[in-house]
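can u do me a favor
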C-alpha cells in the first residue's frame, strides 16, 4: 500500500501524547499503573461530576461534555474519529471508492516488490506507535495497564484494518495480506513492550524523515524514510553512572528510488550511533518531546554506515 499507515500514528500522537506522557511520568515517580484501581478512578470521576469534594463541600461543575463520558464511550468515540479521519482522507487523496473490492500483492522486501518493503515497515511502525499512544490515553481514562494495552492494540489493529478495506476499493492500491501481517506484528510488539518494561527501557522503534529527494507526500515518501531499531544504553544499569548513558546504537533499513521510474531501486541496511535526545529533553523538563522522540528520530541526528543489498 503506497499510502502508508503512518498518518494514523501521527494523528493519534497529536491528540494523545500529553496523556501518554502523564502515564509515563507516573511510572518514573514510582507510581504504578495499578496504584489507582478502575473502581477508584470511577468513584473519583463520579465525585467530580456531582460537584462534591472529599470534604462534602459543593463545587461548581466546570466539566465539559467529554469529561462526563465514561471511559468506554471515550474509547468508542476515539476509534470512530480515527476511522472517520482515515476514510475522509482516503476519499480525498487515496482514490477510495474508485474500484470494486479487490486484492493486490505488493510483495515484501524483495528487490522487485512494489516498494522494497518500506511500506511494510511503515505499517508495522504505525500500528505499534498507534497502540502505544492509545495505551497511554486509555490508562489516563482509568483502565488498568493490562486492559489499556490490550484494548489499545485491538483498536490500533482495527483502525488499520479499516484503512486496508478502504485500499481494497482503490484502483491504485488494493487489499494486501502482507500489510495485515505487518499491522498484526506491530500491535503484538506494543503488547510485548508493555508486558516487559525492561525491554522497553532498552529498545525503541523509530522512523526518521529526511529530505533526500523532493517531498512527494509526507506520509508515503519512502525515499525520505529510515526505519530503525535503537538500543538505548541508559536502559542498562551498568551504564547509569557513565557517559555511555547518553549513547544510542541504531540499526535499520531504508529504500530509495521505488517511487521514481527514473531512479535505480536501492535497498539498504545501516548502522549508526547517536545521542539519546529523548533522555536529554526529558531531563530538561520537556517530557512530552522526550516521549515522542522514543518513536521519531530527529532528522540527520544519526551518522550512518550503509550496506546496499543489491
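np, heres the sequence
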Amino acid at each position: 500500500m503506497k499510502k502508508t499507515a503512518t498518518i494514523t500514528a501521527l494523528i493519534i500522537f497529536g491528540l494523545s501524547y500529553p496523556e501518554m506522557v502523564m502515564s509515563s511520568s507516573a511510572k518514573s515517580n514510582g507510581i504504578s499503573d495499578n496504584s489507582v484501581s478502575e473502581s477508584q478512578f470511577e468513584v473519583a470521576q463520579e465525585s467530580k461530576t456531582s460537584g462534591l469534594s472529599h470534604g462534602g463541600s459543593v463545587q461548581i461543575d466546570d466539566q465539559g461534555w467529554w469529561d462526563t463520558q465514561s471511559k468506554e464511550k471515550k474509547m468508542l468515540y476515539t476509534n470512530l474519529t480515527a476511522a472517520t479521519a482515515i476514510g475522509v482522507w482516503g476519499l480525498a487523496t487515496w482514490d477510495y471508492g474508485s474500484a470494486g473490492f479487490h486484492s493486490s500483492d505488493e510483495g515484501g522486501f524483495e528487490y522487485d516488490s512494489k516498494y522494497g518493503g518500506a511500506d511494510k515497515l511503515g505499517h508495522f511502525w504505525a500500528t505499534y506507535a498507534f497502540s502505544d499512544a492509545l495505551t497511554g490515553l486509555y490508562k489516563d481514562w482509568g483502565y488498568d495497564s493490562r486492559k489499556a494495552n490490550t484494548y489499545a492494540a485491538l483498536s490500533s489493529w482495527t483502525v488499520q484494518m479499516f484503512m486496508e478495506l478502504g485500499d481494497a476499493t482503490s484502483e491504485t492500491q488494493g487489499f494486501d495480506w502482507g500489510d495485515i501481517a505487518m499491522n498484526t506484528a506491530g500491535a503484538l510488539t506494543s503488547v510485548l513492550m508493555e508486558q516487559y518494561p525492561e525491554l522497553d527501557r532498552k529498545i525503541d522503534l523509530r522512523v526518521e524523515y529526511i529530505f533526500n529527494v523532493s517531498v512527494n507526500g509526507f506520509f508515503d515518501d519512502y525515499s525520505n524514510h529510515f526505519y530503525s531499531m535503537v538500543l538505548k544504553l541508559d536502559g542498562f544499569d551498568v551504564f547509569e553512572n557513565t557517559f555511555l548513558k547518553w549513547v544510542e546504537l541504531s540499526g535499520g533499513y531504508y529504500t530509495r528510488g521505488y517511487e521514481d521510474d527514473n531512479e535505480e531501486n536501492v535497498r539498504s541496511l545501516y548502522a549508526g550511533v547517536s545521542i539519546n535526545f529523548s533522555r536529554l529533553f526529558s531531563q530538561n523538563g520537556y517530557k512530552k518531546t522526550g516521549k515522542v522522540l522514543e518513536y521519531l528520530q530527529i532528522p540527520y541526528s544519526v551518522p550512518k554506515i550503509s550496506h546496499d543489498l543489491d
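Residues 1-54+66-195 form one domain. hope that helps!!
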